[in-house]
Design goal:
The complex is a heterodimer. By secondary structure, chain A is an alpha/beta fold. Chain A contains 9 helices and 10 strands. The longest helix of chain A has 15 residues. Classes of the chains: A alpha/beta, B mainly alpha. Chain B: One of its GO terms (cellular component) is ATP-binding cassette (ABC) transporter complex.
């Protein structure tokens, strides 16, 4: 057990915004290479939970360890942590004043202090990986939403992180662009990187997830493998949720 | 549609020949009033004496006149003060946004002090109080006074500019491991420039204008030169008209120049 510590281990985490409790006694373990999909109704704390994984938010009590690093506010390890954990946002959050190539190289160059040519070679490799090498010299505003999200994925990959977090990566996209992003995510899942995705794309979840997590009102209600999750979930609430989103 | 428009009073007044005619009448009216008033008080116009204060051709060759030298001093004073005002303004804005209780308190105290202090009193404080203590000459005291006064306003421009960059940009920068200062430097400040440029231009023009105040401690800039020339020549009308036009040309040139830069920025983004 000692030799193989879990990639992400969350123990009895609570999170408050003022008096509002966003997370209640959340515990979760993610092994290296595991692909976890978190779903649940909006406001259930899914995004809050994964934002606590890379220190965009901080939990109020309990503990979160990522690849052996304790997540704590004002910790000296935070930068090291963020270089272990990449994140893809609903709104892409690309840097609009930089070209696509610069968006991808600025992290490696300024944070990891690698040379420009090496950073560019790396950026082009990952642009290739997300199937848009020809867009390198454009600005984010000139790309479609789907392309921007793929650039955002490449930007995270450029940091060569061991864990990727996805915070509803397809929710802000037009329907015809969702698949191009999901395809990239499926390919990424095959590389063995540890993934935690908050998403309502159940087709994607079925395809890649090793573990499904269902959250409601800040609590984890169900954790089960997808075969069981989609056919015979334990909780009634989870069944209702699945019926609602799978009906159409 | 067009004919209906022309029939309204506004349409009539805006028609090119009418508008130009009106403009000429208004300008002519102002000049006529000024000159007539001067005539009535028996003012002796001596415009022919003005060019020597711009440049002179003497036995020693070409020489710049007092007004040009004063203008240069005003530009130098304003540029130096603006540089320090921007630097100090940025520091104050960052303190205010730092989230530190002390930082915010210091910034707010500075802001309230400067905003509620007449600039003339501030200048006297710098020259007559801080001057002897820190051995400041009048030029340094002027620069510091202008820099401090405008830093307060500039810090608010910075704060607004920084706050208008969406929160997602911070998160994007943080998520790739940037420190706060890297996020400011590479991500947030470059994007806030386009929000800050128009109000900063206004502030620069404001600074050029308020630099005239240092004439009360006899720094040899444009306004002081004007006063000195008048005490030599008694040509108050000619000289103040000229000084006013020189200020106007300087500030208009600045505004137009920055508008060009803004357009360039707009094209880039």
């Amino acid at each position: 057990m000692e030799a193989q510590e879990a990639m992400i281990s969350v123990n009895n985490v609570d999170k408050f915004y003022g008096t509002f409790q966003a997370l209640t006694d959340v515990s979760l373990t993610v092994q290296q290479g595991e692909r976890v999909v978190i779903c649940g109704p909006s406001g259930s704390g899914k995004s809050t939970l994964i934002r606590c994984f890379n220190g965009l938010e901080f939990h109020s009590s309990g503990s979160i360890r990522i690849d052996g690093i304790e997540v704590e506010e004002d910790s000296k390890d935070l930068r090291r942590l963020r270089q272990e954990v990449g994140m893809v946002f609903q709104q892409f959050n690309l840097f609009p004043h930089l070209t696509i190539l610069e968006n991808l190289t600025i992290g490696p160059m300024k944070v990891q202090k690698i040379g420009k040519s090496e950073a560019e070679a790396r950026a082009r490799k990952y642009l290739e990986r997300v199937h848009i090498p020809e867009q390198a010299d454009k600005y984010p505003g000139q790309l479609s939403g789907g392309q921007q999200q793929r650039v955002a994925i490449a930007r995270s990959l450029c940091m060569e992180t061991r864990i990727m977090l996805f915070d509803e990566p397809t929710s802000a996209l037009d329907p015809e662009m969702i698949n191009e992003v999901l395809d990239v995510m499926v390919e990424l899942a095959d590389t063995g990187i540890t993934m935690v995705c908050v998403t309502h794309e159940m087709g994607f979840a079925r395809k890649v997830a090793d573990t499904m997590v269902f959250m409601e009102s800040g609590k984890i209600v169900e954790v089960s493998p997808p075969e069981k999750f989609f056919t015979n979930p334990e909780s009634e609430r989870c069944r209702m949720f699945l019926n609602q989103i799978l009906e159409h | 549609m067009a004919s209906a428009k022309r029939r309204t009073l506004k349409g009539f007044l805006n028609a090119a020949p009418v508008a130009i005619g009106l403009y000429i009448v208004v300008i002519f009216g102002i000049f006529w009033l000024a000159f007539n008033g001067a005539q009535a008080m028996g003012y002796n116009w001596q415009w022919y004496r003005m060019p020597q204060y711009f440049y002179r051709l003497t036995e020693d060759g070409f020489q710049w006149g007092e007004i040009v030298i004063g203008l240069m001093k005003t530009i130098q004073l304003s540029a130096t003060a603006f540089f320090f005002a921007t630097l100090l303004g940025l520091i104050v804005a960052l303190l205010r946004l730092s989230g530190l209780v002390v930082g915010t308190a210091v910034a707010v105290a500075f802001l309230e002090f400067v905003r509620n202090m007449p600039i003339l009193v501030l200048l006297y404080l710098f020259y007559y109080v801080l001057g002897p203590i820190f051995k400041l000459d009048r030029y340094t005291a002027s620069i510091l006074c202008l820099a401090v006064f405008h830093a307060a306003l500039i810090s608010e421009i910075f704060r607004a500019g920084i706050n208008s960059v969406p929160k997602g940009q911070w998160e994007g920068a943080t998520s790739i491991g940037m420190t706060k200062s890297q996020a400011y430097r590479y991500i947030v400040l470059p994007q806030s420039v386009k929000f800050m440029l128009p109000p900063m231009t206004g502030e620069l023009v404001h600074l050029v204008k308020s630099s005239a105040i240092v004439s009360v401690i006899a720094v040899a800039e444009l306004t002081t030169i004007g006063r000195n020339l008048i005490s030599d020549t008694y040509m108050s009308f000619e000289i103040w008209f000229t000084i006013a036009v020189v200020y106007l040309i300087l500030t208009l040139a600045l505004s137009i120049g920055v508008t060009r830069i803004e357009k360039k920025f707009a094209v880039q983004n």
